[in-house]
Amino acid sequence: MDISLEQTLQDGKLLRQVNAFIVSHLRDNNLNQAAIAVASATMTPLNVEVPSNKLVDLVSKGLAVEREEALRGVSPTSTVDPTGGGTVISAGYGLVPTLPTHSLDFSAVQDSKGSSKSFPKHETRHISEHKNAARCARFSPDGRFVATGSADTSIKLFEISKVKQMMMPDSNARDGPVRPVIRTFYDHLQPVNDLDFHPQATVLISGAKDHTIKFFDFSKTAVKRAYRVIQDTHNVRSVSFHPSGLFLLAGTDHHIAHLYDINTFQCYLSAKVQDININGAINQVRYSSNGGMYVTASKDGSVRVWDGGSAQCVRSIIGAHGSVEATSANFTKDQRYVLSCGKDSTVKLWEVGSGRLVKQYIGAIHTQLRCQAVFNETEEFVLSVDEPNNEVVIWDALTDDKVARWPSNHIGPPRWLEHSPTEAAFVSCGNDRSVRFWKEIL
């Protein structure tokens, strides 16, 4: 289904309105701390003007309509997984399965002897190549798509079901060649640095060295150009959508992340950083799962956690990777920890609340490339790259034991790993221009 710009904007306005109703309801019922928390997480003004009891009135009317529909035999609008796997959330381009929500307590003292899990065996396949280095990759929230960006300025969009079909024995002989690349976008003038998918709509954004952030509607089969462009003042190294889809962050050669309202393109910068010694460009910026925080990994070797509403720095881990670059940083799903990677050849897990180092994953050398460290979909394992040996290295996330080293099958080490959020599969990208897909052998 085509999703027009007008529809995207209308959806954004509706989400803003819902957030405003919630904040107003909490505030009017003297639940001030809750109102402040929701306002901060959703970037809604705390003093938003909404008629008293408007939310209660709308919910009451909605429930009445739902009861009437039930009496008439109309199916409810929520979708349930017929396999019994739980409720799924409707997204603009698919259904996002609700994964198990158990959280690992990484800070607990572990007796690691003999307790490390085995990482399942995977098979890998070269699925496409760019005309120059494949620099970055990102999965959609529902795991149905993965996009890759290249130094050749192009972006490729893959459909995972077709990738899997391509990997089946004799798939080409049976039905002819399977082509997993369903879209290719050409609209940047310089290499693509990072990508992200809108959390609800069929929109992919890209940040590039040409100082732009571009918006692509991938529901339109014939469109190869962006339908919207943000012109930044710096090389855009990293991009991340707020979970509401109403804002995005750009990590650039500037030392402070740039926050954009996607409806107005207005840019916001934190005005309260004069006391923070920041002197490095931002290699990566990522929101937490509810948008209440974001994290930056900087070229000065530091990892910083920021309040998602006020854009104030709430935790600075200076020299998290010594004096060399911190190349990636991501929150765990429960937002209690941050996993970072740096050119000091370490992968580290930090407790957000205290800034304490709780785990260190060593044994993989990465000193040259913008190396990524990622969790698998259950957060039981950590993956990164060993550059000299051209290997993918896997650790048990809880015990920090190295449990696997696999040849990457790239010519030269991969420069980017990205794991699916929904299943045991990941992609690797390299300077050899190749994109490889890895999936569990069942």
Distance between the termini: 33 Å
Major sheet details: 4 strands, antiparallel
Count of helical regions: 5
Mean of residue pLDDT? 86
Describe the secondary structure blueprint for this structure.
Blueprint: H1 5-28, H2 32-42, H3 54-72, E1 79-80, E2 87-91, E3 94-97, E4 122-129, E5 134-139, E6 145-150, E7 154-159, H4 160-167, H5 171-175, E8 181-186, E9 192-197, E10 203-208, E11 212-217, E12 228-231, E13 236-241, E14 247-252, E15 258-261, E16 267-268, E17 282-287, E18 293-298, E19 303-307, E20 313-317, E21 320-323, E22 326-331, E23 337-342, E24 346-351, E25 357-361, E26 374-375, E27 381-386, E28 391-396, E29 402-407, E30 414-419, E31 425-430, E32 434-440
Antiparallel strand pairs: 1-2, 2-3, 4-32, 5-6, 6-7, 7-8, 9-10, 10-11, 11-12, 13-14, 14-15, 15-16, 17-18, 18-19, 19-20, 22-23, 23-24, 24-25, 26-27, 27-28, 28-29, 30-31, 31-32
Explain how this protein is built:
With 442 residues, this protein is α+β, with helices and mostly antiparallel strands. Helices cover 15% and strands 39% of the residues. The protein contains five helices and 32 strands. The strands form eight sheets. A four-stranded antiparallel beta sheet has the order 4-32-31-30, with helices on one face. Strand 1 and strand 2 (87-91) form a beta hairpin. Helix 1 runs antiparallel to helix 2. The longest helix has 24 residues, at 5-28. The model is unreliable at 1-5 and 74-91 (pLDDT under 50).
